[in-house]
Every structure is written in C-alpha cells, then in structure tokens.
Amino acid sequence: MGQVKKYVVGCFDDENVLFPAVKKVRAAGYKIQDVYTPMPVHGLDHALGMRETSLHTAGFIYGITGTTTALTCMSWIFTSDWPLNIGGKPHLPLPAFIPITFELTVLFAAVGMVLTFCYLCQLAPFVKKHHFHERATDDLMVMVIECTAKTNEEEVKAMLNSNGAVEVNVQEAPVGWWLGRYDRPSKLFKTREVAY
Amino acid sequence: MIKEQFEMTGRYKQWAYALMGVGVLALVLGFVFLKPTGDANSFGVTKFWAVLMHNSIFFLLITIASMFFISATTMAMGGWQTAMRRVPEAISGFVYIGGAIALVVLLGYVFGSQNTAIYHWKDAEHVAHDKVLNGKKGFLNPTFYSIATILVIGTWIALRHWYRKVSLAEDAGEQGDRSYFWKTIVICAAFIVVYGLTVGSTTPWLWLMSIDAHWFSTMYSWYTFASSWVAGLSLIMLFIVYLKNQGYLEYVNEEHIHDVGKFMFAFSIFWTYLWFSQYMLIWYSNQPEETVYFQPRLKGPYSGIFYLNLIINFVAPILILMKRSAKRNYATVTFMSVVLIFGHWLDFYQMIMPGSLKGDENGGNSIGLFLFDMGVAAGFIGLVMLVAGNKLTKASLLPKNHPFVKESIVHHT
To answer: Fewer CB within a 10 Å sphere, N or C end of chain A?
Structure first.
C-alpha cells in the first residue's frame, strides 16, 4: 500500500458554496489535492489553479505517428516489397492512400489517448485507490486537503465548517494505488439507513 | 457605461474609399486594356466578364454566409454568439448592393454580351449540335437562368430584410418580450431551407458549374458552400477583432473568439474533405468526361494555384489553428482570417478561370491580369467595409433585449 498520508475531507452539496470555499482554502495557503464531484463542474479546474492538460499534445503526437506509419508502410509495400499494377495507377498513388492514412491517424490518436488518459488517472482493472467519500459519485462534492507536519487539522476543519461544508472529517489514506479488491464492504446503504 | 454605438472613424472610411477607388481604377484599366466591347469571343472580353463574375459571386456568397451563421446558431439555440451577432447581421447587409451587382453582372453577361466562352450553353446554335448540352437545355438556358438568379437573390434579400427588421424591433421593444425571438426562429428556419436549396445545391450549378457545362459533380455545391462559409466566418472574425481593437463589443472576449476560431478550423477541414471527395473519385475512376475538369487545373498554367489552394486552405489552418492558444490569440486569428479569405478567393478563381479561358495558352494567368482581378477584389472589399460599417452604426452593438444575452456574456468554452 505504500506511503500513508493524512487528509482533511470536506463535503459540499452546493456548487455555489463550493466555489467560495475553494477560494478561501487556497487563499489560506492549504494545498487542495482534488475536489471529487459527481458531475463536471464548470470552471472548477480554473478555481483550483490546475494546469491545462497535455492530453491533446499527446493526441497530436499519436496522430502524427499513425500518419507516418500508414504512409511509410503502404509506400514501402507498394513500391519495394510487392509492387502491383492496380488499374494502371502509379505505384505510389497518393490520393488512394489518403483515406487509409486518415483512418490510421484517427485510430492511433484515439487508442493512444484512451490509454494515456487511463495511465494519467491511474485507471485499470483491479487497480484500486482510496475513496474519500462514496457519495462523491452520487450527490456530494468532496474537497480533499492534504495535511503536512505543520497543518493544524482542527483549524482546517473549523474553516471548512464555517464555509458551508455539510460533512467534515480527517482520513489517513494510502497515497498511491494497490492491486486487488477493496478490503472493506461499502457503507453507503448503512449510512443511508441511519440517516433516514 | 459601455460603448455600444459604433461610429466609423475617418481612417476606416478613408480605407474603404481608397479600396473602392482601386477597384474603380482597375475596372477602368481593364476596360481600356481588355476591350470588353471588342470581338465577342476574344480573350479580353472573356477575361473581363470572368473577373467580374468571380468577384461579384464570391463576395455575395461570403456575405450571405453571415446570414447562414445567424440562422444556424438561432436554430441550434446557440446563445454564445448573441453578444456579437450584430456583426454578422451587419455583414449580411451587403446582400442588397452585392446582390444587385451580381444580378447586373450575371444577367449583363447572359443577355448583354455576345461572348459564349464562359457559358457555352448561351450559344443556341452550338447547343443544337451538342448532344450533352442539348440534353441539359431545359435547365441551362437564359430564361431559366435569369428567373432562378432573380428569385434566389430576391429571396435572400427579403429574408435578410425581414430578419433585420425583427431584430431592430426587439431592441426597441420591451425587455422579456419573447415574441421577437420566436419570429426570428421562423425567419431563420425559412432561411436555412432557402440557403440549402440555393447555395447548398442549385445556385452553384447555375452560376459556377455551368462554366464547365459538359462536366458535372455532385459534390460541387457543397464544396462551393464550404468555401464561401469558411471565408464568411473569417470575415466575421475580422470585423469582431477590428471592433474589439476600437474598444467596442465589451462582452465579447477570447471565449467567443475561440468558438469562431473553432468554426474556422473545423470548416477548413470540412472544405478539404469535400475537395478530396470530389478529386479522389474522379482521379480513381479516370473517366475522360470527368477528368476534363481537373486536366487544365492540375497540368498547365493553373497547377501552381491548384497546389497553393490546398496549402493555404488546408495545411495552413490545420497547423496554425489547431492549438487552443492559437484560436484565442487575436494576432493569429486575424492573420488566419486574411489568409483564408484570400485562399478561398483563389479557390473561386480556379473554379471559374480555367473553364472560361480554355483557349488561352497562359490561361489568363499572367501577373498583369492577376492584378486586374486583385484590383476588382479590392473594390469589393472596400464596398463590404463601407456597407457593413454603415449597417453597424445603425444599431446598438449589443442586442440588449435578446433572451440569450446573459448566456452569451457568461459564455465559457
């Protein structure tokens, strides 16, 4: 499981409360690791000060690779390896290569970007990561603040509470991912039962 | 208080008049050197009319593309462009004078000139012997041509006039009154149908494809539409950037610029797709009656323009406009707008000239004559500047009672 860190977790149920809270927590100098939301929240990445993703640059490189692969492969086959007379066309019929080149460009870019996305987000079968709150996929926006040796947890909790968090707690969680299954059963339904 | 009332500066007017002066000068010089009153099928007469047709059709199509921009975004409930929609509205105002000029040029050529090099189907004697043209006689004849042309331009003018009227009435009306908005939806729906049936199919057949009357392509109209649409979007972009630089359009920011840039990028690729679909099928099947279109363009005096066309209309936008930061940068989008307008002007040039000037060895491509084309184009640019600028002064730059104004202001890509 590797290194374990301490996090202060604050849950919000309203975007309009979340945004000012994010601003205040950042202004106070705490490091927000991430905000887990059940739906895309417009502008949250800007508010969190996250850098622009470089996924599209990767996509461009994969696409170029596909273009080059298709063109070199086909031109080698049709000029050196196995030249064929097809309908009296030249051996290097560029217009006829374009559709295949296009398809291979798209294929390389699409597959490459999906795999890169999975790698960046550490997503794969059996790869597990700590969930800070199970309702983060349902109706809560979960703000996770990383604690250092100097962080005063009580102060952070008080700050989150005063900024409208509906639930605040402190969790110790492994930093990376691990292989296998979750070692504890889901408590989602039990908490619900208590709540109602 | 925001600046929402545009006023043409002295320099803007000077530029417009200077460009129009260049256009008039080019026309006079063209008249002197090409002698359009001379021998009916001489090079000079053909070139003179071909240049007039090229520019009047091109500038009419790229300005009516603005009306299509308004219609498409209205029908798609695209609220993002509300803060800048007075710009395409003003540009589409060119359709009155541009339509009148195109009508005079096209009907002037069909009825006023003895020349038959551009439209062979005008020559009744020739058509009688020609099996192909005889078969197309019901469609390609002066009567059908002129009625269709008048109807097309008339409908564009009528719909654009009606749209503008409702749009201005909305400004003067009560805030929150949605009746104007519903009326624009009706007009825009009608315009999309008209646009699809004209620019999307029949009009380019009549005006442009009938120059190569023996040849036909089912891709042609879409290809013409894509060309004029990309150039039209670039024109909208240029006006937005100019107004931003003058301190107008306060609510338009790089988010809106980014979206118009996306349109320019995407439809450049769309244009290439259509260009290629037309080219590859003809190249592959290699039928003489089809390759006759590409023969003079690919081999001979026009081959330079043929490849340049692909470079500036496909390679340049895909490489320069691909990055997000490029579409949000005023300098890059301005540069690309100018490049794309010129590129598609050139695209129209190679649609019209090779078919018209078949007999000529140089294809009428010498620099002096190219300057004549450019001069007439400059005149049209000046006229577009003056007309669109004048329309911009007529109304507030922000359609303040439009229901999507807020959505446009908070727009975020």
So the answer is: C
The Cα B398–Cα B146 span in angstroms is 39
Entry pTM: 0.89
Put simply, the chain B residues between 285 and 324 with a CB less than 8 A from any chain A CB are 286, 322, 324
Q: Chain A contact for B131, CB < 8 A?
A: no
- Name which of B284, B324, B412 is nearest A96 (Cβ-Cβ): B284
Tell me: the pLDDT tens digits for B110-133?
Answer: 999 888 889 999 988 889 999 999
For the stretch B25-78, pLDDT in tens is: 999 999 998 888 878 888 888 989 999 999 999 999 999 999 999 999 999 999
Long-range contacts of A152-157 (CB under 8 A, 24+ apart): A153/A6, A153/A8, A156/A8, A156/A25, A156/A30, A157/A8, A157/A10
Q: Which residues contact B239 (CB under 8 A, 6 or more apart)?
A: B87, B90, B91, B388, B392
* Residues of chain A contacting B412 with CB distance shorter than 8 Å: 42-43
- What angle is formed at CA B70 by the lines to CA B68 and CA B76, rounded to 5 degrees? 100
Q: Report ipTM (2 d.p.).
A: 0.79
Distance of alpha carbon B180 from the chain centroid: 28
- In chain A the domains, ranked by start, together with CATH numbers, are 4-51+125-195 (3.30.70), 55-120 (no CATH)
A41-50 pLDDT, tens digit per residue, is: 888 988 998 8
Cβ distance of A98 and B276 shorter than 8 Å: yes
Judged by CB atoms closer than 8 Å, whether chains meet at A98 and B279 is answered as: no
A42/B412 CB distance under 8 A = yes
In A, which residues are within 8 Å of B322 by CB distance? 60
Tell me the angle at which helices B367-393 and B10-34 cross, rounded to the nearest 10 degrees: 150
Q: Return the structure tokens found at B26.
A: 């080019």
Contact B327, B263 (CB under 8 A): no
Cα B201–Cα B207–Cα B212 angle in degrees, nearest 5: 100
Size of chain B, expressed as the number of residues it contains = 413
Pairing of strands A167-174, A127-128: unpaired
Paired strand residues for A144: A9, A34
